[in-house]
């Protein structure tokens, strides 16, 4: 737990000129009146949680079919599919919300359906891809009419799953960044910093006439934090959150609703958060401009010795955590064997690579190639992990002396990678385009 600060302690937003006029709360929230916190720019009297939508906008959205919904039975099926297959990774709602589907925002519902569609085993691959795109476009329309920033954060994080086309990675990064920005707007980054942030024993906030307990606000923030780290790695971009600028308690099991899934939901996000901290350490140590890189001598020991504190009861959940960890390990190993180092080094390429390195490389490559393809189709991380395996196998072939053993290894890896991409080509644009690239390179 993060220690509480005194009533007159300074914080990041204390640089704002209005902050010096506050009596006890140095935490400035740019949507404060709506969220129950101080905000100099709005007044409660001027805010209506049920403000009527602009008639012309409503007419436009109806004309575009934005408010169309599947039958309630299908809605429940998709919602349950999300809870079963993806909730542990995106716990931005409560499991009990399935009992109140009709009260949820149309945007949030469609974002949930979008995420769930990728896990729908009843649909063929082409149908999954086309239906996902249809739901994604509907979410983009509904976004125009949504003013609840909590709903927008929840929906943006779920919409970031949909990576399609040449700009897919940029769009995913954009939605994650928008979610992170709104977390700052609502001071979710400061939840652990002041007893005044949560006014009563219920530890809840009323926003837009909806009560949000501290647990779900904490889960929303930590999910956005993990998505921020992961999107930075997969898109090759900067991270939004600076860990030293936030003050929020660590994720707790009490942040989840009591029930049979509570422990596993908590342990999964806790494990994913720990892996995302490794992603930050890797990016900070090796992928920033050289003069700004950190020194982290304990990183390899911590990374390769990491394991889940508690074994998850579901093999599918354990498999996804194994995939995430193996991806982080390959991202670290990748920076130890890159084309520039192989070309510019005065030493023989084989002198740069130890036997221990090759053992680790093969170990985590095998973990990724052995993951059930169903896990790979639910999130773009799987495609990135597979492509790292292929890229590192190619670099290994360049670095090491030619031998039958090395050649056979590369052939085996390439066959398995091509097989996985063939399965995923109708799920992910990146898989399809990469498959064409690999086939073209083989011909050449």
TrEMBL record:
Keyword terms, alphabetized: DNA-binding, Nucleus, Transcription, Transcription regulation, Zinc
Entries under CDD domains matching the protein: fungal_TF_MHR (cd12148)
KW Hydrolase (keyword) present: no
An example molecular function term from Gene Ontology annotations: zinc ion binding
GO biological process: DNA-templated transcription
InterPro entries, sorted: Amide_Lactam_Regulators, XnlR_reg_dom
Domain of life: Eukaryota
Domain Xylanolytic transcriptional activator regulatory intervals: 80-248
Protein's recorded name: Xylanolytic transcriptional activator regulatory domain-containing protein
